[in-house]
Amino acid sequence: MKSFPRVFVFTVLLMTLCPGLYAAETGAAGQMDPALMEKMKALTSPSEAHKALEPFVGKWSYTGAFWMSPGEPAQEMTGTMQNEMIFGGRFLKQNIEGPWMGQTFQGVGFTGYDNIKGEYVSVWVDSIGTGIMTASGQYDPAAKTLTQSGVNSCPITGEKARQGRSTWTVLDQEHNVYASYSPGPDGKEFKVMEINYTRSVA
Predict the structure, then answer these.
(1) How many Cβ atoms sit within 10 Å of the Cβ of residue 53?
(2) Which residues are 88's β-sheet partners?
């Protein structure tokens, strides 16, 4: 299949997403300003920040714990995760599966770095909810930790936009750990979940 020239792709994107800007930045002949094209190319291409997601790529097994509320016994979790960079290195795609309370849990997530917003953005959906979790934040290269805050609808409390925070830390090439936190009944933050990932040989 013949591929479209990049100039065509960028023109269509600009016309679709920013029609007013497109009209202002094109001449009588309808040619896009070359400087604007270069700016768009930089803003829509994977950047150095995207490389921070590469250590999470691969096949992983996990063990974890989930707390319904502070002080309650932890519910244990196990399963597998497979991560890959998609769309030319723009996004990290997660696929998770494991047993959960007598059923099979499945989840899919996408994380990328938005060059325009200057932050990491994530979305998450799974088989035990009907909402879409969204989050954004920053990566600390010294701590090798991605920290994000966001909201999700909570079936436990009935909240439409429950606040939460998460950290995802690279321990070494073979291990990383994810943790999430939410406000408890007293309003203080408590750890809701901790998942430890180990890289699979196969």
Answers:
(1) 22
(2) none
Structural domains for the chain: 6-44 (no CATH), 49-199 (2.40.128.20)
- The span from the CA of 131 to the CA of 136, in Å, is 17
- Phi, psi of 12, rounded to the nearest 5 degrees: -65, -40
Convert the pLDDT of each residue in 87-143 to its tens digit.
Answer: 999 999 999 999 988 899 999 999 999 999 999 999 999 998 899 999 999 999 999
* Cβ neighbours around 109 below 10 Å, total: 19
Say which residues have a Cβ less than 8 Å from residue 153's Cβ, sequence separation at least 6.
129, 130, 131, 159, 160, 161, 162
Alpha-carbon span 25 to 11, nearest angstrom: 11
